[in-house]
Amino acid sequence: MAIKYVAEPFRIKMVEPIKMLSREEREEKIKEAKYNLFNLKGEDVFIDLLTDSGTGAMSDKQWSGVMRGDEAYAGGKSYFKLLEAGQDIFGYKFIQPVHQGRAAEKVLFGLLMGSGKYAISNMFFDTTRAHVELAGARAIDCVVEEAKDPTLRAPFKGNMDVEKLEKLINEYGKENIALVVMTITNNSAGGQPVSVQNMRDVSAVCKKYGIPLCIDAARYAENAFFVKQREEEFKDWAIKDIVREMFSYADMFTMSAKKDAIVNMGGLVGIKEDEELYQKVKGNTISFEGFTTYGGLSGRDLEALAVGLYEGLDEDYLRYRIGQLEYIAAKLDEAGIAYQAPVGGHGVFIDAKAMFPHIPYNEFPGQALAVELYKEAGIRTCDIGSYMLGNDPDTGEQLQAEFEFTRLAVPRRVYTQAHLDIVVDALIAIKERASEVKGYRITWEPPVLRHFQAHLEPVE
Asked: Which fold has domain 60-311?
């Protein structure tokens, strides 16, 4: 029998009740939240696609690991289990646990960059960009042109533009480029993958100019799955072997383990062989996170993370994971709803600019669609566009993003096909009344990472 859908490769052992509020209640709740979905209470959300970070469901093996966690302040068994897993999977000599991805950036980036320096990436995500700027440097995006056309179905739209990278190095001077960061998958470009060949080419440029290469590894396993599916050289490789190959081209990595390691809390810094840099990272970890063998995590978190690093590499799981997103994408194709195609690894990025051509970038079409999805069906999503990008640090003027996306970030091992159908139906309903939807203006914003806290109101 030909199976039409990719079924979940697991049975559900535990459930959490969710409830949809009435339309009137939802409209009141989003108004009280100042039209910022981060301000909503979780209990007021029916389907939560705000992020795939820390929102996945852990396995029975991970939960049994929670019970085995060694809570020793120094030198606990759980630390050494995680260390062994990290060294085995990534092939790096030094692995430092931290409490999440932005902590990894905090303890590493300040050691590498400062005022007058630049960091270049295929695309920085919001918190990574913020940590570059907090370290005194400037962040520059260098993604391939294919990524900028949501309708173009290219296999590796997350790639870095190698020719542009070399031009930027020559323009600013190699001595002023503190770091090159390869984000896999490329979140801001729609969860799009990066090819191994692109990593080789970028690595060669970095070595030529003596610039360190860092992988932002939040979704390393999903990227490896796409490589296996789309890059001919690796079609017969095991996922774990592809991961080893990818990481062999970099000098270090930061990782939010809350994505592909399928845990609720945790992160890693990996240093391939630079012991001097590792010792400095350890010093920062002690200052900001806690002692080096727990890095801001409990022993039970370390145990669950060690297990999750391997579970995230399981090919049956990854096939189901990407299959969920391909299911949504197929439904959107039928409905004529534009998104960043082909679908990425951790979410579907709806092209809000295409849905709301009447809303200018400075009235945030991506945020407008996010608000409408909550009103329509209690679905929480987020803007990946000009609202998230923020203002020019020099002029204070609103920056215009390359994309105006609304991200549907699907948590791992959490929602069923019926939930996904509700999401698609809500998008179709909004599309039918798209011309009536209005943009938003900001009434208050903090100086850093404004989208987490800003207050908005509809433009009348």
From this structure: Aspartate Aminotransferase; domain 2 (3.40.640)
Whether 83 contacts 278, CB under 8 Å:
no
269 Ramachandran zone, left/alpha/beta (phi>0; psi -120 to 50): beta
Q: 239: closest CA among 263, 253, 259, 223? A: 223
| Joined tokens for residue 185 | 């998958």
What is the number of alpha carbons within 13 Å of residue 169 lying toward its C-beta?
21
86 vs 270: CA distance, rounded Å: 8
**Above 80 in pLDDT, residue 292?**
yes
Q: Please list, in sequence order, all residues whose beta carbon lies within 8 angstroms of the beta carbon of residue 74, skipping any fewer than 6 positions away.
A: 291, 293
Does residue 448 surpass a pLDDT of 90?
no
**Annotated catalytic sites, by residue?**
73, 125-126, 216, 218, 259, 451
pTM for the structure as a whole: 0.94
Report the C-alpha gap between 443 and 460 in whole angstroms.
14
Domain boundaries, the chain: 23-52+315-458, 60-311
From the list 186, 216, 223, the residue with the least C-alpha distance to 384 is 186
Question: Which helix (DSSP H) or strand (DSSP E) does residue 171 occupy?
Answer: helix 162-172
The hierarchical CATH code for the domain 23-52+315-458 is 3.90.1150.10
